[in-house]
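User: Hi! I have a protein structure encoded as tokens and I'd like to know what sequence might fold into it. I'm fairly new to this, so please keep things simple.
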């Protein structure tokens, strides 16, 4: 259920923060939340022009948008990010944490520097962002982490990434219990293979075809598919979903 531009809770317009908002999935989520009536802050660690493009999409829906560069795995940088959003937007109702990295490699051969990098962004980053979100999100709000359907598939060459997303699932379920009495929901969305620009660039065409044929729906996911699930989880009809990992993959796993 979409909110109108004037929709507010206790007399205020609702605000969302999307981390990783320059990626295909994060950008689609930010745009969907703006279409739902949220003002949207975007955290990014990449190219400023991509961040500006996301902000442009937010503003195209008639909502306020702003981008903030931040290292989300650094606790001081994350605290500064959340402080800035509080200062600029006057509070926070929703946090969607999409930022993450993947460095494929067989467990027996993976460089431990790659393991450490994945752990820092995907596990520590989720912990740090969730910690800040839990301290800031107002009653009636939501926290959504992005996990992965690879936790169910457990494919070769993705041991470090899959393990990191299993940690995201655990953190999500535990935080939901720790926020008892706050009226704040905490869930994770676990996409299957999704046709973001980065995925399409990095995945050979024959592998894309194989992955598209795997789910019963016979296609890759689209960023808008994932954005729609997030929209439901943070919207008024999703309030009874809490402490869950929602596998959004077309039946892939």
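Assistant: Happy to help. Inverse folding works backwards from shape to sequence: for each of the 253 positions I chose a residue that suits the local structure. Here it is:
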């Amino acid at each position: 259920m979409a909110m109108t531009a004037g929709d507010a809770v206790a007399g205020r317009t609702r605000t969302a923060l999307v981390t990783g908002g320059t990626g295909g999935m994060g950008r689609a989520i930010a745009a969907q939340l703006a279409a739902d009536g949220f003002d949207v802050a975007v955290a990014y660690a990449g190219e400023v022009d991509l961040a500006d493009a996301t902000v442009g999409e937010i503003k195209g829906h008639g909502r306020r948008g702003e981008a903030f560069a931040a290292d989300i795995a650094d606790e001081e940088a994350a605290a500064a990010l959340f402080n800035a959003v509080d200062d600029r937007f006057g509070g926070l109702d929703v946090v969607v944490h999409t930022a993450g990295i993947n460095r494929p490699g067989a467990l027996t051969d993976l460089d431990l520097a790659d393991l450490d990098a994945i752990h820092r962004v995907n596990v520590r980053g989720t912990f740090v962002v969730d910690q800040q979100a839990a301290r800031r999100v107002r009653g009636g709000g939501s926290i959504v982490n992005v996990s992965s359907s690879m936790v169910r598939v457990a494919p070769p060459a993705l041991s470090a990434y899959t393990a990191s997303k299993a940690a995201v699932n655990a953190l999500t379920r535990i935080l939901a219990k720790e926020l008892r009495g706050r009226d704040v929901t905490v869930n994770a969305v676990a996409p299957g293979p999704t046709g973001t620009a980065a995925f399409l660039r990095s995945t050979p065409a024959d592998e894309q075809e194989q992955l598209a044929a795997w789910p019963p729906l016979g296609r890759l996911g689209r960023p808008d598919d994932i954005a729609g699930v997030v929209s439901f989880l943070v919207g008024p009809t999703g309030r009874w979903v809490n402490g869950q990992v929602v596998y959004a993959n077309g039946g892939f796993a």
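A useful reference point when you look it over: Confidence is low (pLDDT under 50) at residues 1-8. Feel free to ask if any position seems puzzling.
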